[in-house]
Structures are given as structure tokens and as C-alpha cells.
Design brief:
The protein is an all-alpha fold and 87 residues long. The chain contains four helices and no strands.
Length: 87
């Protein structure tokens, strides 16, 4: 694999992770609109640490039986950057 191939693969991987947070938000909205609203507000608050959001999401996911509701801290940070929350 050339460096160009690796670069393209990295770009594609980053794109999938960004979409994952969007899909996660959409799925949560379908199941629990109230949780979606709270999560979206937390993600949109620049003073809310991403580590706290990730931990709270993991607890809610485990308690609700939706273990698939997870995202990496980097993916959450990128979502915030993409939406102008963090610069």
C-alpha cells in the first residue's frame, strides 16, 4: 500500500467515524427523543467535557439495554468541531 493509499484509507475511516456519531444521534432520537435532546445539548455545550458525555452515554446504554450506543472520545470531539462547538 502506498502512502497515498494509506491517506485515502485514513480519510475514509475518519468519514465513517463522523457518520457514526450522526447515526448514533438519529437512532437515539427514534428510540428516546428526550435522551436525544439532552445528548445533543451536552454535545453542543463547549463547557461539557467529552469524557463526561462518553461516560454518561455508556451508563445510559448499559441501563437501557442499548450497548451499541457508544462513540469514541475522538469521534465526539470531531462531531463538536464539525458543528462549530469546539475550534
Amino acid at each position: 500500500m502506498t502512502l497515498g493509499d494509506e491517506f485515502v484509507a485514513a480519510l475514509r475511516a475518519d468519514g465513517r467515524r463522523k457518520l457514526r456519531v450522526e447515526r448514533l444521534l438519529e437512532e437515539i432520537a427514534e428510540v428516546d427523543p428526550g435522551l436525544h435532546e439532552v445528548l445533543h445539548r451536552a454535545l453542543s455545550d463547549p463547557d461539557m467535557p467529552v469524557t463526561r458525555i462518553k461516560a454518561a452515554l455508556a451508563r445510559v446504554a448499559a441501563d437501557s439495554g442499548h450497548e451499541e450506543w457508544s462513540a469514541s472520545e475522538n469521534a465526539l470531539k470531531r462531531w463538536r468541531q464539525d458543528h462549530g462547538v469546539d475550534r
